[in-house]
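Quick one, probably user error.
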């Protein structure tokens, strides 16, 4: 809940994300993801901070990166995506004080330089340069914060890194597979994800994903084969 008069935010049995630039904000991240959709380049580390205004001394607070679910493994980073998770109390979140978390690349998100500690969770994937954050309290927890700040060491994200595909592709004609060859069908020169032939677009509309798929006189022949259409991440 946002208190516009006080300028504070109360998170009570809820969660929200910061900096997610995905076209479909309700799409849930998964452990099989190979990309992210945020506006923060955390590849060289980051510091997240906020002032603790109040809390109920119960439940827990969890902080995630590139994960908009409650499961810590549902991210391109796997389990380390939940980089902070502790009980809400005066030891962890003293009222009137500033909470600060700093991540250094190559270190464990929980135990820092001790990568073999029993509580170690893992390191973040530094190849991801467009991240977002999620804040969550469980059903018993409530915390009020102010002056949220996220500082990254790396420069801003290149807009080309943001995975925001077009909302739709419109075909004016039926696709005639017989005009292609087996080789050209799976290239953007036949049809790209923009819906037209492209010599420069490196994303083909049709992608062979296994087995035998061939163009024959009457169309496409699948002989124990498979292909996708319109996958932006083939």
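Nope, works fine. Designed sequence:
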């Amino acid at each position: 809940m946002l208190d516009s008069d006080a300028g504070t935010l109360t998170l009570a049995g809820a969660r929200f994300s910061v900096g997610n630039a995905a076209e479909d904000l309700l799409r849930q991240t998964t452990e099989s993801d190979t990309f992210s959709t945020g506006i923060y380049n955390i590849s060289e580390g980051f510091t997240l901070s906020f002032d603790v205004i109040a809390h109920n001394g119960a439940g827990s607070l969890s902080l995630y990166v590139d994960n908009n679910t409650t499961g810590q493994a549902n991210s391109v980073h796997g389990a380390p995506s939940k980089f902070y998770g502790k009980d809400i109390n005066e030891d962890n979140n003293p009222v009137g004080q500033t909470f600060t978390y700093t991540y250094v690349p190559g270190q464990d998100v929980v135990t820092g330089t001790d990568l073999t500690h029993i509580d170690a969770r893992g390191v973040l994937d530094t190849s991801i340069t467009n991240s977002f954050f999620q804040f969550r309290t469980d059903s018993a927890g409530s915390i009020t914060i102010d002056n949220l700040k996220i500082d990254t060491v790396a420069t801003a994200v290149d807009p080309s890194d943001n995975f925001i595909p077009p909302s739709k592709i419109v075909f004016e004609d039926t696709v005639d597979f017989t005009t292609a060859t087996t080789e050209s069908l799976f290239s953007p020169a036949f049809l790209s994800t923009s819906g037209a032939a492209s010599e420069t677009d490196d994303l083909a509309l049709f992608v062979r994903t296994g087995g035998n798929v061939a163009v024959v006189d009457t169309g496409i022949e699948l002989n124990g084969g498979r292909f996708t259409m319109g996958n932006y991440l083939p």
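The first strand starts at residue 2 and ends at 3.
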